[in-house]
């Protein structure tokens, strides 16, 4: 099977899940089949597919919690290969893909330190198919777009910016599939200069109603009239970002 002959198909949607106790949760679900044109397919994978040593499809997806209920009730995110695997990723989302599994247990991923086609395949999936690297872009451009108040999407308090921030993965220690996936998120953001970092600022209406001598009024107005501006990792002047929590 030649990967370039697999047509790219992608779907992104929000889903409300209701459990047997009547509690509902809001999730962002993204699914994809196929690779981008600039995806780098390892030679070992191309050879294994051509020799029919691998019979897997480049398909994957993620499910990201969009409300506090989903984040709190299911704090441990998992990996899936159609069915759940007995391992936790340490990522802020569930990951599902057509992974190469251990040939004996069939319930664990192929070892990530193996120098071979199966490990290379899994790395290809997590970096180029799993879609976690696109979650910030989807949220900023589709869910909380057009400089609307973030309160309309994440709740009624500005601190809920943290709910969005928690969807950016921390880099797991060491090497492995999940660190590779997390790195791909930030590499894509930098490479494409995606404006996915939110800055909450008082709206024009709030600022117009307060003066420099009336900071308290501005603060009170800003608590209910705040707009979100989206910036990338580089820029000039007022659009230049500064990160104050980097070591």
Summarize this entry quickly.
Helix content is 30%, strand content 21%. It has 247 residues and is an alpha+beta fold.
Broad shape: globular
Give the structural class: alpha+beta
Could you tell me the number of beta strands? 8
Strand order of the biggest β-sheet: 1-2-3-6-4-5
Write the layout of secondary structure elements.
Layout (H helix, E strand, L loop, with lengths): L8 E10 L5 E10 L9 H8 L8 E7 L2 H6 L4 E4 L1 E6 L5 E4 L19 H12 L6 H9 L7 H4 L6 H5 L11 H16 L4 E6 L1 H5 L6 H8 L3 E6 L16
Parallel strand pairs: 4-6
Antiparallel strand pairs: 1-2, 2-3, 3-6, 4-5, 7-8
Which terms summarize this structure?
single chain, 247 residues, alpha+beta, 6-stranded mixed sheet, two-stranded antiparallel ribbon, 9 helices, 30% helix
Structural commentary:
The protein is of the alpha+beta class and 247 residues long. It has one domain. It has 9 helices and 8 strands. Strands 1-2-3-6-4-5 form a 6-stranded mixed beta sheet. It has a two-stranded antiparallel ribbon with strand order 7-8. Strand 4 (78-81) and strand 5 form a beta hairpin. Mean pLDDT is 75; it is low at 141-159 and 209-223.
